[in-house]
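README: folding subset

This subset contains proteins for which both the sequence and a predicted structure token string are available. Records are stored as plain text. Below is the entry for histidine kinase (377 residues), shown exactly as it appears on disk.
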Amino acid sequence: MTHDQLAIIGIGAAWAGSVGVLGLAVAYAARHRSFRWQIGVVGVTAVLAVVAGVVGTARAMFLSNHDLSVVLWVVVVAGVVAIAVSAIVGMAFAMWSRSIRDDAKRFGDSGHFEARSRGPAELQQISDELAMTAERLRESRAREQRLEESRRELVSWVSHDLRSPLAALRAMTEALEDGLADDPSRYHRQIRAEVDRMVRMVDDLFELSRIHAGVLALNLQPVALGDVVSEALAGADPVARAGGVRLGGRVDDGLFVTADPAELSRVVSNLLMNAIRHTPADGVVEVTGRAVDDGIELSVTDGCGGLSSEDMARVFDVAWQGSAARTPAADDPRTPVAGRGAGLGLAIVKGIVEAHRGRVAVANHDPGCRFVVTLPT
Ligand SMILES: Nc1ncnc2c1ncn2[C@@H]1O[C@H](COP(=O)(O)OP(=O)(O)OP(=O)(O)O)[C@@H](O)[C@H]1O
Ligand SMILES: [Mg+2]
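--- output ---
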């Protein structure tokens, strides 16, 4: 490179660089204004940088006066074109961003956002991101609606389920009070049974509200699954015997799981009680426990005759009960004391299992269905 060329580059850099710094300062000052300003500043800076470079080199005698005026005219014309182009691009950009803003506004009003491809990649990314947010929002709204529905259902069923035993209690106590009961001890037993049932229901509701509020304090410790299952089997044995249901199955030796022992036995006994209740006389209920890749698996298999896929999708919902469960045979010993449950058992099972980072599922398994709980060890 010749000495002259080096000098031209140096002079050009100094003059154009000063204009560039000035342009940056103006762009910074206008940073909160419309994007059109930024593009305009870039265009004008580019033109002025060329003008400054040319004037600088002319002053150093590298250009004659005549050449200088020719170059300046060319630069002015080119500058007009550049500024016109930047104005058009700026306008297009403003239009795209306005259209996204309008869509976002509509999204706020209606919850619907349609990702249309428009403008440069960055704007498209914003638009895609908004569309995904809209989708997530829609899903969470639907979830909330389902929850709200099940809560409303729960309140209505609970009030319904409390009203009938309360009415029965009032009738029985009135009969006792008036001395009209011909067999008072039977009334006493029945009153006791109704009260037990209501205590159980209130206890279940309390448990469920703790699960839903996320304040279930787990007292985690190593628990022998075999012990929990045999305790639950012993507790359920009288009910199974009364219903002519055989209890069986086996839990592999030495299976330990980190869990809250009280909550875990609640899970097992809820599943077991359901299984016994839905198994006909002479049927079998089996409980098995084994180690699997990602923890331990506990399964309860019954003889319920299978569940439809709609029922399977709803069994874990709060307050949901199969059609038969709302009108049980009152004298069936397998229905809980004095009547029926409230549809809370499986929702509690699911809540407890998930609080232990486990999962629960149901599938049909001839001649009934099988509930499978998987817990991490
Ligand atoms: N082992 C099972 N076999 C067939 N159906 C079942 C079984 N377990 C539950 N279900 C169905 O799922 C419904 C909900 O069960 P869940 O345990 O939550 O409530 P529930 O047993 O009716 O009342 P609760 O458990 O509160 O006393 C039951 O009403 C029944 O229709
Ligand atoms: Mg139940």
